[in-house]
Amino acid sequence: MAEHAPDSRTADPDRTARAPSGPGRPKDLAKRAAILQAAKALFAREGFAGVSMDRIAAEAGVSKLTVYSHFGDKESLFSESVRILCEDMLPDEFFKVQADGTLRGQLRHIAEGFFDLIVSDEAIRTHRIMVTPGQADQSLRRIFWEAGPKRTHDSFVAFLRTAVDEGHLEIDDLDCAAKQFFTLLKGELYSRMMCGVCDQPDADEVAAHLDATVEMFLRAYAPR
């Protein structure tokens, strides 16, 4: 059940920090960052249901009303924390076609960023919460999907579309090709980590896996 914001008539000791301009603004941004940092760590460690807005506020060093003033409810804060985690490790710049870079090099760069993201401790723990019965309801899984995997998928589809338009790739179904690329990248290594049967894989093993994935993808979709 959603945690709703407390009565807005309650005095807020942080009200001056939320001014739209002036000296209070940098303090406001710092508090938002602190809230997100606390939320990311707590959600990943203890799950959505196990973390209250009071706990997040205390961890961030702000009032609960300040948390609500930034994010509205716990679901919105969870969504933003997932989005920020993905954006921090796989920023939009990864998916911009570079005029001075080779397609192979750019695909390899995206592959490395994606793999680093999905095998990070925060991502592994959050994903386990999503697939564990009783830990997340359908609406929360939808929030996770929209904020994380879907955003990454849509960004890569846009990248592929540009590469096709410029004649570097030949793809009839961009959506399918994007799914194939990310599924190949996960591979056995990710499955082993999700099952808890291995720790972080060896760097050489990861490099070989990423190189093989990019090579297979290019062989499938290089212009004929």
Helix proportion of residues, in percent?
Answer: 55-70%
Task: Determine the N-to-C terminus distance.
Answer: 54 Å
> Structural class, please?
mainly alpha
Write out the CATH superfamily name of the largest domain: Tetracycline Repressor, domain 2
Largest sheet: none
Shape: globular
Number of helices: 10
**Total number of strands:** 0
CATH topology value of the largest domain: Tetracycline Repressor, domain 2
- Beta-strand proportion: under 5%
Low-confidence stretches: 8-26
What's the CATH C level of the largest domain? Mainly Alpha
What's the SSE pattern? HHHHHHHHHH
Average pLDDT, all residues: 83
CATH hierarchy: architecture of the largest domain: Orthogonal Bundle
| Structural Rg | 20 Å
Number of domains: 2
Description:
This is TetR family transcriptional regulator. GO terms for molecular function: DNA-binding transcription factor activity; transcription cis-regulatory region binding. With 224 residues, this protein is mainly α. The chain folds into 2 domains: 15-81, Orthogonal Bundle (Arc Repressor Mutant, subunit A), CATH 1.10.10; 90-221, Orthogonal Bundle (Tetracycline Repressor, domain 2). 67% of the residues lie in helices and 0% in strands. The protein has helices spanning 24-46, 53-60, 64-71, 74-89, 103-118, 121-131, 138-147, 149-165, 174-194, 203-221. The longest helix is centred in the first third of the chain and has 23 residues, at 24-46. It starts with 23 loop residues before the first helix and ends with a helix. The model is unreliable at 8-26 (pLDDT under 50).
